[in-house]
Amino acid sequence: ANYNINFTIGVFEKVEKEFTSITKRKMPVIFYVLKENEKKASAHLDMAMKMIRSHENYFGEYPFINEKFGLVETPYLGMEHQTINAYGNQFRYTELGGEPVDWLLLHEMGHEWWGNKVNAADWSDYWIHEGICSYADALYHREVAGEEGYHKKMANARHGIQNVKPIIPKRNASTDEVYQGDIYGKGSYMMHSLRFIMGDRRFFRVLKEFVTNNKYTYKNLVLEKDFTSHFSDNASQDLSPFIHMMLYTTDLPIAIINKVKLNRYALSVESVGMKLPVEVKIGDRIRTITLSSDPVVVRSIEKPVIDPNHWYLWRRDFDEKIDH
């Protein structure tokens, strides 16, 4: 994409290491760093290589293994320039799983798969670049800090979602029409929900098959319909009602809990157009129940809690934002 072309000119020190991919192929990992930061470059590249290894576990071999993974220090924050990411986060690390992590390094690197290898044909599908890349960030948190770290990352995404306008306002849209924060957060949360709907084994297999399929990569540009058909064809049900709700509308599932008699509650989910597996906390136990607009009656002394682990976005979450 032409937005991804850049020239960076400066006086740099070149720091280089060697990376061995998941298929045992080797490539250079290079950092063009300012002289005053040269001593920080080696550890920074070690961090980068750990991130590449994690991404390879989920998305297959680094997409440009025959060339390099590169970084260049820049006065602006960052950008996913193919094979030489711009880095301007000034080595400001946070802690993850007891070790340092650079959020910018992680995110821009993820675009080598999501944005540079898999590339949308229409700006309307820019969520494929930013939403799935943001989800890749969460998967790295999962690798380093386990499921707890993953869920904390997704909670941060959930709290930042506005849901004021659709991710895809129309087809053949301009950048001004589609670019907003929700292509990151809400896009990644849709992937989070699909993980639960499909189950880990199937979801991670289908995700990797998408990003490693020649039909969807490099010169073969993709659209939402390619993503939806690929995931639906490999799931146990048609996922298009849920995906279309998340992308083309601001509608969200509505959870309904009605007490029908003593220790009996009717549970249902509306506004989705398909059945959803939903965790329900009954007492101190969590069960997964398939819910739709047709109520399911459960026995519980206390009022059940729907989706205690926040696998979905719910209308109630945003009604509360509006009320406050």
Describe this structure in words.
With 324 residues, this protein is of the alpha+beta class. It folds into 3 domains: 2-95, 2-Layer Sandwich (Zincin-like); 123-248, Orthogonal Bundle (Neutral Protease, domain 2), CATH 1.10.390; 254-323, Sandwich (Immunoglobulin-like), CATH 2.60.40. The protein contains 9 helices and 13 strands. It has helices at 38-59, 103-110, 126-160, 175-178, 182-198, 200-211, 224-233, 240-248, 315-323, and strands at 13-20, 26-33, 69-73, 78-79, 84-87, 94-96, 99-101, 254-261, 264-270, 276-282, 285-291, 296-299, 305-306. A 5-stranded mixed beta sheet has the order 1-2-3-5-4, with helices on one face. It is elongated, with a radius of gyration of 21 Å. The model has no long low-confidence stretch (mean pLDDT 96). GO terms for molecular function: metalloaminopeptidase activity; peptide binding; zinc ion binding. Residues 45-243 form the Peptidase M1 membrane alanine aminopeptidase domain. It comes from marine metagenome.
Count the E strands: 13
> Quick one: overall form?
elongated
On the 0 to 100 scale, the average pLDDT is: 96
The arrangement of helices and strands along the chain is: EEHEEEEEHHHHHHHEEEEEEH
Number of helices: 9
The helix-and-strand class reads alpha+beta
Gyration radius, in Å: 21 Å
- How far is the first residue's CA from the last residue's CA? 41 Å
Given this structure, which CATH class of the largest domain is correct? Mainly Alpha
The CATH architecture of the largest domain is Orthogonal Bundle
CATH superfamily of the largest domain: Neutral Protease Domain 2
Poorly predicted runs of 5 or more residues: none
Number of domains: 3
